[in-house]
Write a structure and sequence with these properties.
binds nicotinamide-adenine-dinucleotide, two-stranded parallel sheet, NAD, Rossmann fold, alpha/beta
């Protein structure tokens, strides 16, 4: 066995001490690094926690808003509704009730205390027009196409379902014809089954490009049966014929309102009609486009006047057609100038070539409505236009906030497209 020399023993003793020292230092370093890691992880975790929390907050904020909206809708205040006894309260169906005229009629009949069922396929109408009634115990909204039969129990039917403006009814002429013919037959069938009275929303277009002026209810009209407007004009004419066939043959009580141009809030922004065109153009600083020389005349009634006329006619004993319109006649150019002034717009007036089959004159003779219904329009043109301008301004703001406002599509001309008529 080899014995260790004194030098070796000394070195070993030093190394042992060093080793101990080194081990001690290593232990301290280890503890320090563990502590450091721990502290780092804590701060990382805290940072991470903060990030996660802010992400959660971001995701939850819109949900919170939604919950607030829902809470609001649960506690929604409806417009004031009259109380009617069971005897006076009617069950009323409005086809096309989510459209421009239909939604105002809904408002009136609801506020009068009736039970209203709106039936609409939302072709040109929208839920937003009647959303303030959704959930009310007297109100029902049904998504339904009148071209299909409908089975419900009602006392009165206001049959308004039909596209009403040229771009909308020309978009799909076959569908326009089906709605006005098959749709009207279905509603008359319903009226017959349940013993309801039906009011047809007919139109001054049944007079076509009139040869008599103003037009009274005895005038048979001057309609081009194969022109671009025929699907609507002839559709409404045959709808009237159907009403009187059901009245004579089946004893159904019918009312026929020949409605003249109407305007007001909730009318379609892009329906291509004079009032909406001019208001939109004036608000957007675009030229006001007049087709032809601007000497053709139009008479416009405010929507609340029309609604009062429809209700008066429905509840009257007048079964023959009645004109509902405002006889105050203006040239198209006068309308352009007035709207420009009311909007305070600097837009110029631009003259374009005349549209096909555009009637030269249109003015209702409303003596029958005055005499038999005691009805006449009361809202002055400027007052009505100001309300419509206010509505359009708001709608443009809505649009600017990226909300979708449907534009009418161009007319379908080609055969063989796969789309439901
Ligand atoms: N506004 C006017 O100046 C005017 C003038 C004359 C006649 N009218 C008549 O008054 C009625 C209402 O016109 P408006 O201006 O409110 O038009 P609108 O387009 O705003 O309303 C028509 C409603 O009918 C609905 N509809 C269309 N086809 C349907 C179908 N097959 N089934 C169910 N619903 C359908 C639409 O979605 C819309 O809600 C129409 O019958 C129209 O012919 C209106």
């Amino acid at each position: 066995m080899v014995s260790k020399g004194p030098v070796l023993r000394l070195l070993t003793a030093i190394n042992r001490r060093r080793m101990k020292l080194l081990m001690g230092l290593a232990f301290v370093a280890y503890v320090a690094s563990v502590w450091g890691n721990f502290v780092n992880m804590r701060s990382l975790q805290e940072n991470g926690d903060q990030k996660v929390e802010s992400k959660i907050e971001e995701a939850v904020a819109p949900l919170r808003e939604k919950i607030k909206d829902l809470e609001k809708s649960f506690t929604q205040k409806y417009p004031p509704v009259k109380f009617l006894s069971e005897k006076d309260r009617k069950r009323i169906l409005i086809t096309g009730g989510a459209g421009f005229v239909g939604s105002h009629l809904t408002d009136k009949l609801m506020m009068d205390g009736h039970e209203v069922t709106v039936v609409d396929n939302f072709f040109t109408g929208r839920k937003r027009n009647v959303e303030h009634w959704i959930g009310h115990e007297n109100f029902e909204l049904i998504n339904h196409d009148v071209v299909e039969p409908l089975y419900i129990e009602v006392d009165q039917i206001y049959h308004l379902a039909s596209p009403a403006s040229p771009p909308n009814y020309m978009y799909n002429p076959i569908k326009t014809l089906k709605t006005n013919t098959i749709g009207t037959l279905n509603m008359l069938g319903l009226a017959k089954r349940v013993g309801a009275r039906l009011l047809l929303a007919s139109t001054s277009e049944v007079y076509g490009d009139p040869e008599v002026h103003p037009q009274n209810e005895d005038y048979w009209g001057h309609v081009n049966p194969i022109g671009p407007r025929a699907c609507y004009d002839e559709g409404k004419r045959v709808a009237e014929t159907m009403c009187y066939a059901y009245m004579k043959q089946e004893g159904v009580e019918v009312r026929v309102a020949r409605i003249f141009n109407t305007f007001g809030p909730r009318m379609h922004m892009n329906d291509g009609r004079v009032v909406s065109n001019f208001i939109l153009q004036a608000l957007q600083g675009e030229p006001l486009t007049v087709y032809g020389p601007g000497t053709q005349t139009r008479a416009f009634q405010y929507v609340s006047d029309l609604v009062n006329g429809l209700v008066a006619l429905m509840n009257s004993n007048v079964s023959s057609p009645v004109n509902l319109g405002n006889p105050e006649e203006h040239t198209i150019l006068e309308f352009a100038q007035l709207i420009k002034k009311l909007v305070g717009s600097g837009s110029e007036i631009q003259f374009l070539s005349e549209a096909q089959d555009d009637p030269q004159k249109r003015k209702p003779d409303i003596r029958k409505a005055k005499l038999l219904l005691g009805w006449e329009p009361v809202v002055p043109l400027e007052e009505g236009l100001n309300k419509a301008i206010h509505y359009f301004r708001k709608e443009l703001e809505y649009q600017a906030n990226n909300q979708y406002i449907p534009k009418p599509k161009p007319a379908r001309m080609k055969k063989g497209r796969t789309r439901h008529n």
